[in-house]
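Please, structure for the following, as tokens.
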Amino acid sequence: MRSADARLRTLAGLWLLGHGLRATGVDAACLARIGFSVDGRPEIAGGPAFSISHSETLVACAISGTAAVGLDVEARQPFRFARMARLMTAEEQRIVAAEPVRFYDFWCAREATVKATGRVGLARIKRLRLHADRAHLDGRDWPLRALALEPGYAAWLASDRPFDTVRTEYVAIGARA
């Protein structure tokens, strides 16, 4: 990582992961077993599933001992509609044209879902179909939940099972400009 800010966000994410593990009764020493799955997803060998996301000054972590989990957070900031429209359905484009900040809800729900599947990529984000409380990808439904973490941010959680088994931790690491 070239940027000091990126290193700080990564360390904050690992700190949150350790904190969440301890809070759920898992020995945080398992952090020494962090590696990558064959799909390139960060994982703890023999440990719970987790997902870390950060944007601007917000860092968040979701942990589940029984389900796949994906988390995405994004600062709601100006964006170029024309550039991002190709990633949305016609209905989503209509909604975002009327209320631009909603783009981040659609984006985070999509990104959280592909993270939960363990295989990310722009092509997968485009194939995914969103519904009110779920996404459809890879021939199956993925439950979704919007999270209210900090004002000015969108945050979504996706899983392959209901959410009663997921713990979410977050921290703001400085002031937003």
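The chain is about 30% helix and 30% strand. Residues 4-172 form a domain with the Ribosomal Protein L22; Chain A fold (CATH 3.90.470.20).
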